[in-house]
From TrEMBL:
Name of the protein described by the UniProt record: IclR family transcriptional regulator
Any single biological process term in GO: negative regulation of DNA-templated transcription
Keyword Nucleotide-binding included in the entry's annotation: no
Keywords of this entry: DNA-binding, Transcription, Transcription regulation
GO molecular function ontology, one term from the record: DNA-binding transcription factor activity
Domain HTH iclR-type: 11-75
Length: 272
C-alpha cells in the first residue's frame, strides 16, 4: 500500500466508525443496540462493525454488554459532551442567530439571562435607522413586566414564580400586570404559544415579543426578544414575529444542548 493510500483508508475507517457511534447514539434504548441491527441498518458486515467499534470501546466512547453483546454509549461520550457544554457561552452561541433575526425583522433584538427576580441584558442588536430602545447591555429589569422575563418564567417552577411575586410587582405603565393571578394566566398563554408579549407594560409605546432559551438540562436560562414601537409592532406584526422568535430561541437552545423539540406549525400562530 502506498503512503498516499494509507491516510485515505484511515480516513474512511474513521468516518465509518463515527457513523457507527452516531447510530448507537440515535437508536440505542435502555438495553443498547445489537450488533446485528447496527450491521443491517448501516449495510456493513458484523466483522466490520466489530473492527470499527473496538477503538471506540478502548476510548470509552462505546461500551458492550458482556452478556448480551449489545452496544451503548460509554462514559467517554459523556465526558466529551460535558467538555463541549463547558466551552459554550450563551452570548457567543446566540450572536449569529440574533443578528440574522434582526436583519429579517428590522427591529431591535435583545438577549438576556435570568438572575432572579430580574433579567439582565447581555446583548443588543438594533437597526440604526429606527428609533433606539432605551435598553442597554448590563441593564437589569424585573422579570414580571418584560416579555423576556415572562418567556423565562413560563418554563420555571412555582418557587421562581413566588420569588418574583414576593419581590413586588409595582406598575411601570398603566398596562403593567401587577396581579399574580393575571401573571400566572399570562404565563400559561406563553406556554401554549411558545412566545411571550410585553404590550406596553414596560415602556408606554413599545411592544416586545420574546421566546425562552433552554440549556442542556432543558431549563429556561435566558431569552431573546424583538422590540419595536407600537406604530410598527402592531398586533398583526406580533403574531407574525412571534413564531420567528420562538424558532430562533429553539435554534440557540439546541446548540446549548437542549433536547426540546421544534414546535408544530399549527401551534406557532397562537396569540398569547
Amino acid at each position: 500500500m502506498t503512503d498516499e493510500a494509507k491516510p485515505r483508508n484511515q480516513s474512511s475507517s474513521l468516518r465509518r466508525a463515527l457513523a457507527v457511534l452516531d447510530h448507537v447514539r440515535d437508536h440505542a434504548d435502555a438495553r443498547g443496540i445489537s450488533l446485528t441491527r447496527i450491521a443491517d441498518d448501516l449495510g456493513i458486515s458484523k466483522s466490520t462493525v466489530l473492527r470499527l467499534t473496538q477503538p471506540l470501546i478502548d476510548g470509552d466512547l462505546l461500551t458492550r454488554d458482556r452478556d448480551t453483546g449489545w452496544y451503548r454509549l460509554g462514559h467517554g461520550a459523556l465526558r466529551l459532551g460535558q467538555a463541549y457544554l463547558s466551552t459554550l457561552d450563551m452570548r457567543a452561541v446566540a450572536a449569529d442567530p440574533l443578528r440574522r433575526l434582526q436583519h429579517v425583522v428590522g427591529e431591535t433584538c435583545h438577549l438576556v439571562v435570568y438572575e432572579a427576580p430580574d433579567v439582565v441584558y447581555i446583548d443588543k442588536v438594533e437597526n440604526e435607522h429606527n428609533v433606539r430602545m432605551a435598553s442597554r447591555v448590563g441593564m437589569r429589569m424585573p422579570a414580571y413586566r418584560t416579555a423576556v422575563g415572562k418567556a423565562i418564567l413560563a418554563w420555571l417552577g412555582e418557587d421562581d414564580f413566588q420569588l418574583v411575586v414576593a419581590a413586588g410587582m409595582p406598575p411601570r405603565t398603566e398596562r403593567t400586570i401587577t396581579d399574580p393571578a393575571r401573571l400566572a394566566a399570562e404565563l400559561e398563554r406563553v406556554r401554549l404559544s411558545g412566545y411571550a408579549v410585553d404590550d406596553r407594560e414596560n415602556e408606554p409605546e413599545v411592544r416586545c415579543v420574546a421566546a425562552p432559551i433552554f440549556d442542556h438540562t432543558d431549563r429556561a436560562v435566558g431569552a431573546l426578544s424583538v422590540s419595536g414601537l407600537t406604530s410598527r409592532m402592531t398586533p398583526a406584526r406580533v403574531r407574525e414575529v412571534g413564531p420567528m422568535v420562538a424558532r430562533t430561541g429553539l435554534e440557540i437552545s439546541r446548540v446549548l444542548g437542549s433536547s426540546r423539540p421544534r414546535r408544530r406549525r399549527n401551534d406557532e400562530g397562537n396569540q398569547p
